[in-house]
TrEMBL record:
CBS domain ranges (all copies): 136-198, 199-255
Protein name per the record: Magnesium transporter MgtE
PANTHER family xref list: MAGNESIUM TRANSPORTER MGTE
Pfam families referenced in this protein's UniProt entry, alphabetically: CBS, MgtE, MgtE_N
Segments passing through the bilayer: 283-303, 359-380, 386-405, 417-439
Length: 446
């Protein structure tokens, strides 16, 4: 809330021509807070506000901005105005910004980099988008497995300033193959003559080509300060720091939440997003849901005669479809999370299915008993039996399908979040109605 208020006041000052007070306001904010205020402003005012920053401060603020906003400033101000800020970005952040820029501007910015920074950026850009290789930092500190603690400390003093982090240090052999990880605290407290290998732990690491989201979840869940990243021959090529991993996880969570709500995530703050951008984020999913909902209508049409004979059955349709959709979404969310943290993989599909069958059956039996008693007492025990059996069946099917859909999505290289609430709800609506009316015809003889 405070950020929004500051952004509003700053924008009003700029729109009113009070540039000196606006510059003073920005000067009094920490770099991270100033970046948040700029992101909440309208595009034109944001550009002016960024120009009000002193050069050295602009570099620090630029580093904290979202890549979309960074790209916008580059496109608006030109490469000359942001060249120094671009040069001061970490290689992984620089690669993320380059992904957002037109090719001509990106080439110009790369051309203006120092040779060392250009080489570091090229390492990261050599991996596919979405891979942990794109998000790692190639500027890391390492020690060799035959180093003593004393020589390792000297190496850290000599090269530590160039590394993104020195608190968790990969241990490699002389062919740069990862053999362990050692903490800075352990090295500092060790006898200088002790070998580093004596204090090293088995490494938790990631392959450069694997999903950045999967590696980030592993890093965050296990509290790893720096996750080593290796190539196909297990040679160390970079590290994914905990703060970068947290950014990846937050972005993935925002995307999953958006798609669970049947929309695409917005790239800019809501109030700064255009009507067209918001429409695009929502309308595609509405088309998908509208087309898929035709299945539900067709099912109702098929059983129209059954409804005419037993009108009371129509009263329970919202209840049953709601239970099915929620059960499927719960299962899908749980398995999607397990996939992201590498708790399950594609080969675990039979185990996932068996577990979800049992979970769905248990939940269905509990809810079905309540449905049987309540519906039976009010509408007759025949209707109660239909409701009870349907709830048991729907919960079992929805939980099983919901649990397997993320695995199927991963198998065909699709984001599991795409198969979350919208598709599962529609599937459960259609299959739930089929189950409901089939049981009603069998039990009630209609």
């Amino acid at each position: 809330m405070q950020t929004a208020v500051r952004a509003k006041h700053l924008q009003q000052a700029i729109d009113g021509g009070a540039l000196a007070p606006a510059a003073d306001t920005l000067a009094g904010l920490p770099a991270q807070d100033a970046a948040a205020v700029l992101e909440a402003m309208e595009r034109k005012s944001r550009t002016i506000a960024f120009r009000l920053l002193p050069k050295d401060r602009a570099v620090r603020v630029f580093d904290h901005l979202d890549p979309d906003v960074q790209a916008e400033l580059v496109a608006t101000l030109g490469t000359a105005d942001v060249a120094e800020a671009f040069d001061h970005l970490e290689p992984d952040d620089r690669a993320e910004l380059l992904d957002e820029l037109p090719a001509t501007i990106a080439k110009q910015l790369i051309r203006d980099l120092s040779p060392a920074q250009r080489e570091a950026t090229a390492v990261v850009l050599g991996f596919p988008r979405g891979s942990v290789g794109r998000r790692m930092s190639p500027e890391y500190m390492h020690v060799f497995n035959d180093d003593t603690a004393g020589s390792a400390i000297e190496r850290i003093k000599l090269r530590g300033r160039e590394a993104e982090t020195i608190y968790s240090i990969p241990v490699v052999d002389h062919e740069r193959r990862l053999v362990g990880v050692v903490g800075l605290r352990d090295i500092l407290l060790a006898d200088p003559a002790d070998p580093v290998a004596a204090y090293a732990n088995a490494p938790i690491f990631a392959q450069a080509g694997e999903s950045a989201e999967s590696a980030a979840w592993r890093c965050v869940d296990r509290g790893v300060l720096a996750l080593p990243v290796v190539d196909s021959e297990d040679r160390l090529i970079g590290v994914l720091t905990l703060d970068d991993a947290a950014e990846v996880v937050d972005a993935a969570r925002d995307e999953d939440e958006a798609r669970a709500g049947a929309r695409e995530p917005l790239k800019t703050p809501y109030l700064q997003s255009s009507t067209l951008a918001i429409t695009r984020a929502r309308v595609v999913w509405l088309f998908v849901l509208a087309v898929s909902a035709i299945l539900t209508v067709n099912v109702l049409e098929i059983f129209e005669g059954t409804l005419e004979q037993k009108v009371a059955l129509a009263l329970f349709i919202p209840l049953l479809t709601g239970i099915g959709g929620n059960t499927g979404s719960q299962a899908a969310t749980t398995v999607t999370r397990a996939l992201a943290t590498d708790e399950v993989e594609g080969s675990d599909a039979p185990r996932v299915a068996f577990k979800e069958v049992r979970v769905g059956l248990t939940m269905g039996a509990s809810l079905g008993l309540v449905g049987f008693v309540v519906a039976g007492a009010i509408y007759g025990w025949g209707i109660g039996t239909v409701i009870g059996l349907t709830i048991v069946s729907v919960c079992t099917v929805a939980a099983t399908v919901g649990g397997l859909m993320p695995l199927a999505a991963r198998a065909i290289k699709v984001d599991p979040a795409v198969f979350s609430t919208p598709f599962i709800s529609t599937f459960c609506d259609a299959t739930g109605l089929l189950i409901y009316f089939s049981i009603a015809k069998a039990v009630l003889g209609i």
